[in-house]
Amino acid sequence: MAERSTAAVDVADNSGEQSLTAEADQSTADGVAKNRERDTDSDEAQENTGTDGSGKTSPPELHSGHKLARRYRLEECVTRLDGFSSWRAVDEKLRRAVGVHILPADHSRARSVLAAARSSALLGDPRFVQVLDAVEENDVVYVVHEWLPDATELTTLLAAGPLEVYDAYQMVSQVTAAMAAAHREGLAHLRLNPNAVLRTSTGQWRIRGLAVNAALRGVSSDTPQRTDTESIGALLYAALTQRWPYESDAYGLSGLPKDVGLIPPDQVRAGVHRGLSELAMRALANDGATASRHESPCTTPEELVKAIGEMPRIRPPEPAFTSPPEYQPTSYQQGSYGRPAPHPGISQPVPTPPPPLQSRTGKVLKWAVSALLIAALGLGSWQLADALMDQGGKTDDSNQTQTTDGDGDRKPAAPLRRIPIESVREFAPSGSGIQEDEVQLAIDGRADTAWITPQYKGYANFGNLPQRREGSGLILDLGSVKDVSRLDVSMYRSGHTTEVLAADADASFPSSLSDFSQRLTKLSVAGSSLQVELKKPIRTRYLLVHVTELPQDGSASLFRGGIAEVEVRG
Predict the structure, then answer these.
(1) pLDDT value, residue 394
(2) Exposed/middle/buried for 246, CB within 10 Å: 0-12, 13-18, 19+?
(3) pLDDT at 71 over 80
(4) Which of 471, 451, 452 is nearest to 462 (CA)?
(5) pLDDT tens, position by position, 319-369
(6) Which of 72, 75, 355, 483 holds its CA 20 to 30 A away from the CA of 529?
């Protein structure tokens, strides 16, 4: 079996120390107060107390209603562990909920916590729960971070069962891409577990406690990239099987049977996606213990991102439409309007329908109608032929006005050529993207791949979120100014409210809606495809496929959309 990192799995199986419990790991609640813990005598507290002496420092005497910096009012203690405490609080200045970690200024880890919080705040990646403030004052060090009341921990999701294939794919894709970005900036998590991964109401996955959670507990690693990669593999393993990929139980999940070793997820549970099962093994088995598989292990998030990109893309499930209820005619349609209600127990005779027109009068009427129809058809045909002959004469005359060459023949119009799209990026005027890593799927020449938004609840306009007030979409960069005559857009499904805009020829890296001054189509509801043919070519380098509202995704309260393919001609 491959070597296990203590920071990744919360099990000190190499050092001889006691194994940590899942309850101890639930102690940092950065935005979700669902797994609360107030036990200060946990295994983790005992372990850290004996290693660096941090347990000798008593936590500050704080209580609900206490204010920090005359701004952050403490509301509820979520964690009190190992000399520090975590609180749900209210930022009275901005009137919003926040989370706060507090520890004494003379705590042995206070300096490292401040440094980690400030480094994490500089990253500014929206895929991570953001650090809002890191302060030392009045013999106290505190770190303020976002509080996400609408987010759900992966621990809670797995308590109900393993994730669906598409949800597990989205989770590992988004978490891996986020951690790869963090490591490029020199930041590691080292405590990446089901309690640190959250799914928001819009379907996005976010990571909390980057660098800070490890600093609070004094966790470090000589191979941080490998540690975080193995942790991602454990998350995917748990999402596919609802089992923790080690012998110890953790995070409310049962561990693997003892003396069995690390077996692939598709051998633990039937119906597991084969590609995701192999991906989990490549991330977990960093010493090459990949069971019977032949793929090389992934030891960094970047390698894992590449492995995910090489997989066949997993599409979301098709929405299930329920059949309408059986039609029930009303009493009026049954012909009983105005009739007295039948007495109970007495069956009513069914009226016999009148016979067809079989009498002499009926036959005369049928022959008369037939004669009129034949006469009308004959007159219409004669008028149509006469109109066509007149139009033919006019066409012959008009052809003589077209541009001709020296021999008098007509000069055919030059066929439109496909204009290559140099790059594509997401339209995100607020600076917050949706699925930025998947925009290339809209210009890869394949109709079976697409840039797809997360699922939004309640509102078709991207969940009515403030950062999506101007919608979203894709900005196409043609590389240089071109003459554009036609645009073909294949949508992910029918029902998008969308428009196509173009920037001026002298525009440079447009990003806001006002930068695209040329309107090529009106804002309207599109079908499965959108075709734009211009009577006169426009000169531009940048095009915007702008989406303001999404189609329904299986029910009247869920919405999801996307763009499958874009082709430009000129």
Answers:
(1) 44
(2) buried
(3) yes
(4) 471
(5) 765 566 665 655 544 444 445 555 555 555 555 555 555 556 666 677 777
(6) 483
CA distance 36 to 13: 26
**556 or 29, greater pLDDT:** 556
Query: Rounded distance, CA 399 to CA 135, Å?
Result: 81
* Nearest CA among 151, 152, 205 for reference residue 177: 205
pTM of the model: 0.54
Cα(97)–Cα(89) distance, rounded to whole angstroms? 6
Evaluate the CA torsion angle 271, 273, 277, 280 in order and state its sign. Answer: negative
Stretch (H or E) spanning 525 = strand 524-525
Are 441 and 424 in contact by the 8 Å Cβ rule? The answer is: no
For 333-356, give the secondary structure using H, E and C: CCCCCCCCCCCCCCCCCCCCCCCC
Q: What is the pLDDT of residues 2-56, one digit of tens each?
A: 333 333 333 333 333 333 333 334 334 444 444 333 333 333 333 333 334 444 4
Q: Residue 7's closest CA among 40, 63, 47?
A: 47
- Measured between alpha carbons, how far is residue 428 from residues 73, 219, 236, 334, 425 in Å? 34, 36, 29, 57, 9
Phi, psi of 393 (to 5 degrees): -65, -40
Q: Are 249 and 11 in contact (CB under 8 A)?
A: no
| pLDDT over 80 (residue 285) | no
Q: How many CA atoms lie within 13 A of 28 on its CB side?
A: 31
Closest to 545 in 3D by CA, of 497, 484, 482, 495:
497
